[in-house]
Amino acid sequence: MATKYTLPPLPYGYDALEPVISAQIMTIHHTKHHQTYINTLNNALASQAVATDKNDIVSQIHLQNTINFSAGGHINHTLFWENLVPASSPSAQTHVASKLMAAISARWGSLEKFQEKFNAVLLGLKGSGWGWLVQDTESGNLEIVTTKDQDIVPAGKKPLLGIDMWEHAYYLQYLNDKGSYAKKIWNVINWKKVEERFVGGSDSVFGTLAGLRSNM
Amino acid sequence: MSATLLRTSTTARSALRAGASRRAAAMASMSFVRGKATLPDLPYDYGALEPSISGKIMELHHKNHHQTYVNSFNAASEQLAAAEQKQDIQAQIALQPLINFHGGGHVNHTLFWENLAPSKNGGGGEPTGKVKTAIETSYGDFASFKTKFNTALAGIQGSGWAWLVKDNETGQVQIRTYANQDPVVGKYTPLLGIDAWEHAYYLQYQNRKAEYFSAIWDVINWKAVEQRLK
């Protein structure tokens, strides 16, 4: 039997990100949406174990889609909760991320220009997906990329900061005004965590999720 | 009929041509003013589909979401026309995803509003005549069809639509899902579309999308579906 994945507790209260993200959104997003990805993933992995035992390669291939989607949902949301923090926290201050800020300024000119670019990329998503600040693991360069639906960032890119642009991430509060959500979320970014990811290796980013990632 | 669907410029004509004539009857309400796509009026009030779909959802969905697709499609069409004028092929190719997404959003929502109806105006129930026969040929009976359709809707990974379509080669109907705003074009004719984007149900159903998929059958306009099958 494969490992059962469980919902990680939020590192802050459901209302801790208000007024940027409402407690209602956070509660549903964490206890319902994220939990559903985990449940689906556990079921799919159990089916995959059965198919593997039976040498049923066709079933194994058919399950890849569900595993990609639900495992991606689990990984992406876990990274997302970690890279958010209440605005009042010292970790929300940009000066705690001095190495990253220097790299962002070198790449985009300033934090503001980077944020403008990032928001334009977020608003350009056609359908559900995520915007990411990533670091290329070979060149070390910073890049802004998007992944569709629950795809994780591709191999060779280390995710530093992820923003959920599924409608469920903002709709109860912002309705169709996703531009305001994309703007305001910068107030609750955990720059301390993003800096840790920047200076650490990929394993430190994914933590206990690393084993899961290599299965995908 | 197809003339009313298409802008006079060859630009937009090429963008919307695929399948347009087949869909002409289905999209009679899609109108263009001075060569621009415009938001069609809803054929019923915003609150008319309650309790299946709340008035607030319908209003935002029509006035904001659909309008944004219309605006963005027109903007992309203008850019496309300019790129054609300049014979800038790279720019024309680069604009295709925007034409597909926003044009698809306009087409899909227009078809969606038309294939819904308040129950007091005949929405809901079961199809009759040709549609009933076509569904039974492909799916055995209406209950099995509905179950399969709802499974298809629930299986969409991300934003998208589920459609009952007619295969133009075989004449048979089938359920197909499309990602994001990809429109039903090419070898299929759209008969019945259900919007599975979260904005279509979230204010009322939140993550309980199965309840939305179950409730929407009470407001399906089977007469519109039958007209599209003809």
UniProtKB/TrEMBL annotation, chain A:
It is found in: Mitochondrion matrix. Its EC number is 1.15.1.1. InterPro entries: Fe/Mn_Superoxide_Dismutase, Mn/Fe_SOD, Mn/Fe_SOD_BS, Mn/Fe_SOD_C, Mn/Fe_SOD_N, Mn/Fe_SOD_N_sf, SOD_C_sf. The keyword Manganese applies. It catalyses: 2 superoxide + 2 H(+) = H2O2 + O2. Its cofactor is Mn(2+). Mn(2+) binds at residues 29, 77, 164, 168. It holds the Pfam family Sod_Fe_C. It comes from the Eukaryota. Residues 4-84 form the Manganese/iron superoxide dismutase N-terminal domain. Homotetramer. This is Superoxide dismutase. It comes from Oidiodendron maius (strain Zn).
TrEMBL record, chain B:
Its cofactor is Mn(2+). PANTHER family: SUPEROXIDE DISMUTASE 2, SUPEROXIDE DISMUTASE [MN], MITOCHONDRIAL. Its EC number is 1.15.1.1. Transmembrane segments: none annotated. GO terms for molecular function: manganese ion binding; superoxide dismutase activity. This is Superoxide dismutase. Keywords: Antioxidant, Manganese, Metal-binding, Oxidoreductase. The lineage of its organism: Eukaryota, Fungi, Dikarya, Ascomycota, Pezizomycotina. Residues 127-228 form the Manganese/iron superoxide dismutase C-terminal domain.
